[in-house]
Amino acid sequence: MLGFSKRSQKKSSKNPLEIFDQYEQSTPSHQNAINALPGWNCAFPPELNLAAGSLPLYADDRIDWALQTFGSIDGKTVLEVGPLEGMHTYMLHHRGAAEIDAIEANRLCFLRCLVTKQILRIDNASFMLGDIQSWLTEREKVYDLTIASGVLYHMADPGEFLRLLAKRSDAVFIWTHFVLEEAMPKEDLRWLPFSGKIETKMIDDVPVRYYERSYHHANTNASFCGGMKDRHFWMHRDDILLLLRTFGFNHIDIRDQDLNHPGGPSFSLLARKAPVNPDEK
C-alpha cells in the first residue's frame, strides 16, 4: 500500500491539462484586460479598435467647454471626483495637467480606471479608491481645478460635499441633475424614483432643500456607477448656485441647461473664485 485513498485517486483522474478559470489562455492584449472586468460604460478611442462600453467620454464636449472656459491647465493640479472609467482623466492628461488626483469609490469602476490608465498611458494621474468626503476632510491640499461630472446628484449629503469642495479648490466644474419644479410637473414620470420627502438642511447657515431619492436596486448591476448609499438627495437648482456663491465662487458660467433631460433637469457649470476686481490679479 502506498497510502493513496480512493478520494485522492479520484482527484488524480482529472485532465492534467485543464486550465483554471482564473487564467487567460489567449495571446496577451489590452482587450483581454477589458474583458476581465464586467460592466464597462465607456468606449475607447476608435483608432484603438477595442470593445468596451458605448459612451464616447474620451471626447466629452462638456469637459472641452470647461477647460476652454477655465483656461490652460498646463502645469495645474486637478482633482477629479468619480472618474468612472478614466476617460475624462484621459482628456485632462492630454491638456497637460501636472498632477491629477482621481478619487473613485466604486470598486469595479476603480479597477476599470486602472485598465484605462494602462491602455491610454495616463502617467500624470493617481487613481485612488475611497470616499471623496474623507479625502477632502483629511487633506489640506488646494487644487487649481476640480472636475465633478455626474457626481453631485448621487451624494447622500450634497451640500456638505460642496462645502468641502470649496475649501479644496479654486475652481470647480460640475455637471449634475437638479430639481426645478416648473420643469417637472407633478405628473412627470421623472419624479418616480423620488420618495416625496423634502428635507431642509443648514449648510453654513444657509438653508438648502434635499429631495430624497432611491436607486431601486440598480446597484445590483455591474455597470452601476451611482452613489455609495441608496438614500441620496438631489438639490434644487437655485440652492446649488446659492451655496457656490456663499462659498466664494463669485464667477459662475452655466452651459447646456437641459430641462427636458430624460433623467431630470441638468446643467454644466464652471464656478471660479475670480477676483471681484480684475486689477487685483
Brief summary:
The chain is of the alpha/beta class. It has one domain: Rossmann fold (3-Layer(aba) Sandwich).
What can you tell me about this protein's structure?
By secondary structure, the protein is an alpha/beta fold. It has a single domain (41-280), classed as Vaccinia Virus protein VP39 (Rossmann fold, 3-Layer(aba) Sandwich). It has eight helices and ten strands. It has helices at 6-12, 30-35, 61-70, 87-94, 107-120, 132-138, 158-168, 237-246; strands spanning 77-81, 99-104, 125-129, 145-149, 171-177, 194-203, 206-213, 232-235, 251-258, 266-272. The longest helix has 14 residues, at 107-120.
Structural features:
globular; 7-stranded mixed β-sheet; 10 strands; SAM-dependent_MTases_sf; 281 residues; 3-stranded antiparallel β-sheet; alpha/beta; Class I SAM-dependent methyltransferase
Task: Provide the fold topology.
Elements: H1 6-12, H2 30-35, H3 61-70, E1 77-81, H4 87-94, E2 99-104, H5 107-120, E3 125-129, H6 132-138, E4 145-149, H7 158-168, E5 171-177, E6 194-203, E7 206-213, E8 232-235, H8 237-246, E9 251-258, E10 266-272
Parallel strand pairs: 1-2, 1-4, 2-3, 4-5
Antiparallel strand pairs: 5-10, 6-7, 7-8, 9-10
Protein name: Class I SAM-dependent methyltransferase
Organism: Rhizobium lusitanum
InterPro entries: SAM-dependent_MTases_sf
